Amino acid sequence: MDITTGIIALFAGLAVGFVIAKLLEKGRATKTVESAKKEAAAILKDARAEGENIKKEKIYQAKEKFLELKAEHEKVIINKDKKISETEKRTRDKESQVSSELARNKKLNERLESRLEDMEKRREFYERKQGELEKLHKSQIQQLEVISGLSAEEAKGQLMESLKESAKADAMTFLQDSLEEAKMTAQQEAKKIIVNTIQRIGTEEAVENCVSVFNLESDDVKGRIIGREGRNIRALEAATGVEIIVDDTPEAIILSCFDSVRREVARLSLHKLVTDGRIHPARIEEVVRKTENQIEQEILEVGKRTVIDLGIHGLNPELIRMVGRMKYRSSYGQNLLQHSREVAKLCGVMAAELGLNPKLAKRAGLLHDIGKVPNSESELETPHAILGMQWAEKYGEKPEVCNAIGAHHDEVEMTTLISPIVQVCDAISGARPGARRQVLDSYIQRLKDLEEIAFGFGGVQKAYAIQAGRELRVIVESEKVSDEKAAQLSFEISQKIQTDMTYPGQVKVTVIRETRAVHVAK
C-alpha cells in the first residue's frame, strides 16, 4: 500500500512538474513571438526608411544627370550657333570682298578700255605721220636726183667707193704707225714681261718664301708628330693646308706652303703641340683652330699698329687686315711689311719736299704692295700692282692713291705726281744695301746674339761664333777665371743660349783659359 501510494505520489509529482514545464515553455514562446514581432516591425521600419533614402538619393542623382546632360546640350547648341554665326560672317565678308573686287575690276576694265581707245588713236596718228614723212622723203630724194643729175643708187655707189678708198688709206697709215710703235716698244715690253715673270715665279720665291723650318729638341719627337700609321701628320696637313716634310734632316721638320700665314699657323700649332705633349687628331684640330684665331687677331693688331705709327687715318678695315698679312710675306728676301713702311716714310719725306700732300703719299706708299698678299689662288694670276689698285678702288681709296699703286711697275699710265714718287721710293727701299738679304741678316744676327750672351758673363775677354753658329769659343782672363770656374762658365753660357735663343741643331760652347809667361831678353 505504501509502495503504491508512493508510486502514485511520484507520478502525480511528475505530472505536476510536466504541467509546470509546459506552462513555463508556453510563456517563453509567447514572449519570443512578441519579441520577434517587435523585431520584425523594427526591421520593416528601418527598411522603409532606407528605401526612402535610396529613393531620394536616386532621384537626386537623376536630377544631377539631367542637369549635366542639359548643360552639355546647351554647350553643343551654343557651339553650333557660334559656328553658324562665324560661317555667316565669313560669307558676308566674302560677299563684300567679291563685291569690292567686282567694282575694282569694273573700274580697271573701264580704264583699260579708255587706254585702248587712246592707243588706237595714237596708232592712227603715227601711221598718218609716217605716211606723210615717207612722201616728204621721196619728194626730197627726187629733188636731190634732179639737182645732182644722179639716181639714188648711183649716188650711194659713188659714196661707198670714196669711203672704201679713205678707209683703206687710213688703215694703211694706222698699220704703219702701229708697226713703228711696236718696234720702238717691243724691247721695253719684253723686259717688263720678263721682270714681272721673275718677280712672281722666281726660284727664290719657291725656296725662301714657301718653306719654313721647325726645329726639334730631338728626333724622337718626329715619331709622335707622325703618329700611328701617320694619322697625326695627316690630320695636321688637313687642318692647316701645309705640306709637312719629315726627312733625314736632324732635329728639324720642313713646312712647305705658298701661303705664309698658313705656314705660320702650322709652325705655331706644332710648337704648342710639342710643348704640351698631347698629339692626337682631336687635339690637333683644336690647337690649329685656336692658333688661326690668334694669328688673325695678331694680323689685325699689326695692321692697326702700323697705320697708327705712320699717322694714316680712315683706312678700310679690310685694307688694315691686308697690311697686317704683309708681316708674314717676304719679297726677294725682304719682309714686305718692313719694306712698305720704309716706302711710306720715304714717300712722305719726298712729297713734303716737293710741296705735295705727305699723308696721301704715305698712304700710297704703304698700300703699293698689298697685291702681294692675295686672298685666293685665282688672284695669283693678276699682277700684284693691278690687283692692289683694284682692291684700293674697291675699298674707297682716292684716285691718286689707286693710280700710284697700279703704276709703280708701269702697269698703268701715271696720272698724278704721287705715282712717280711711289715708284722711286719702292726702288730705293729695295735697292739699299742689305735690304733684300733677310736670310743673311738673320744669320749674322744669330752670330752676334751668341757673342753678346758670352760677353754678358764676368771674366770673358773675347768670344767668337764659328762653324756657322754651331760653336761658340770663349776666351777668358786667366787671372779672373780659374779652371774650375771655366767649366762652370761653359755650362752657364750653354744654359743661357738654350733659354734665350732659337737656333737649328746644337751649339757647342768651348771656354779657353790660357796662361802666358813673357820675359824680354836684353
Q: State the secondary-structure class.
A: mainly alpha
Order of helices and strands: HHHEHHEEHHHEEHHHHHHEEHE
Helix fraction bin = over 70%
Instruction: State the separation between the terminal residues, measured CA to CA.
Output: 205 Å
Low-confidence stretches: 200-205, 433-438
Main pleated-sheet profile = 3 strands, antiparallel
The count of strands amounts to: 8
Q: Quick one: overall form?
A: flat
State mean pLDDT (0 to 100 scale): 80
Number of helices: 15
Ordered list of secondary-structure elements with their pairings:
Blueprint: H1 2-148, H2 152-201, H3 203-208, E1 211-215, H4 220-226, H5 231-240, E2 243-245, E3 252-256, H6 260-276, H7 281-310, H8 317-325, E4 330-331, E5 334-335, H9 336-353, H10 358-367, H11 384-394, H12 399-407, H13 418-431, H14 438-455, E6 460-466, E7 471-476, H15 483-500, E8 508-513
Parallel strand pairs: 7-8
Antiparallel strand pairs: 1-3, 2-3, 4-5, 6-7
Helix pairs in contact: 5-7, 6-7, 7-8, 9-10, 9-13, 10-12, 10-13, 11-12, 12-13
